[in-house]
Amino acid sequence: MPTSQSKKLCWGILGTARINEKILPHLIASRRSEVGALGSRSLEKAKAMADEWKVPNAYGSYEAVISDPNVDAIYISLPNHLHYSWAKAALSAGKHVLVEKPLALRSGEAEELSALARDKGVHLSEGFMYRHHEQSITLLELIHRGELGAIRRIQGSFHITLPEGPNIRTNTHTGGGAAWDVGCYLVNFANALMGRPPTSVYGVGLFENSYDDALSGILDYGNGVTALIDFGFRGPRLDEMQIVCEKGWIEIPHPFKPSTREGIRILRKAKKETPLLEEIHEIVDDHDAYHSEVMEFENAIFEKRTSRLAGWESAAGVRTLEALLESARSKHPVILA
């Protein structure tokens, strides 16, 4: 296990998902990382992807990747229902872990993984790549500095259209559904903006074939502050957020896939006592958030830096999504605190 930058962080990849193509280039190009192994339940698939990306070792099981003595860190891009079990296996083996969102499908499991990482002295991170984009960093810093005053209301939407036919994203046996697929982004950002989880939630959902196809929710943060969110698989594509504060508001056309063409709009109350607002259109520098995600993970290992995602966020996000789904099914609010 590397303790200084004299040795590269050797990664093992679990799964052959398409998202691997987003992060592999940055792991391979990094001065502080290298990819040493890739595993799949199909050795043929593992070899095909390993050959494509020039990964030296391909395995026909996930266990073999975790057991490889040269592997220091595990990247998990498996279906949602496998995140907890394989993250637990990797952490138990003393490996650092980067797991795609959601960390788990039950809040108790997310809490267990966080505790296990602490006990083993290894780093655990949930793969919300948008949090590593300069736009998200800038917005959170602006809010937490209090330049626009306290948050009064958050509104957010995230809708996509799925292609026709069977889709793992709608398979309830593998952790499918809109909440775990797209709703998790809205919950994660709302909690990060507020700096705490909601005290209660109320959800209204459309459930077809047992999964949540679309859902609207109210996250109550106390003192009259709410986040109003809606998300689903019925498209057309829509991803936007608005943050209303005491001294102005922020409009974000694409919070989870930032665009340098549109940027963000920050509207502040003018200095004089007048209903007019001054508008500031900010274009945030474009860069690959996956690159920054890799860099931050490396910083946590080599330099012991604190993660941008606070330790409480993953379990709180899972707990909030659990409660939203419970509320939508029961048609009653769910108290969290």
Oligomeric state of this protein: single chain
Helix content: 25-40%
Number of domains: 2
- Series of H and E elements: EHEHEHEHEHEHEHEEEEEEEHHE
Shape: globular
- CATH fold-level label of the largest domain: Dihydrodipicolinate Reductase, domain 2
Quantity of strands, as a count: 15
Share of residues in strands: 25-35%
| Low-confidence residue ranges | none
CATH architecture verdict of the largest domain: 2-Layer Sandwich
Fourth CATH level, the homologous superfamily of the largest domain: Dihydrodipicolinate Reductase, domain 2
Q: So how many helices?
A: 9
Polypeptide structure, described:
The protein is an alpha/beta fold and 337 residues long. It has nine helices and 15 strands. α7 (178-194) crosses α9. The two termini are 40 Å apart.
Tags for this model:
337 residues, alpha/beta, Rossmann fold, Dihydrodipicolinate Reductase, domain 2, 9-stranded mixed beta sheet, 6-stranded parallel beta sheet
Question: Layout of helices and strands, plus pairs?
Answer:
Blueprint (H helix, E strand, L loop, with lengths): L8 E6 L5 H10 L3 E7 L3 H11 L3 E3 L2 H6 L5 E4 L6 H10 L3 E5 L6 H14 L3 E4 L6 H12 L5 E11 L16 H17 L5 E9 L2 E10 L5 E7 L1 E12 L2 E5 L11 E6 L7 E6 L6 H14 L10 H18 L3 E2 L2
Parallel strand pairs: 1-2, 1-4, 2-3, 4-5, 5-6, 7-10
Antiparallel strand pairs: 7-11, 8-9, 8-15, 9-10, 11-12, 12-13, 13-14
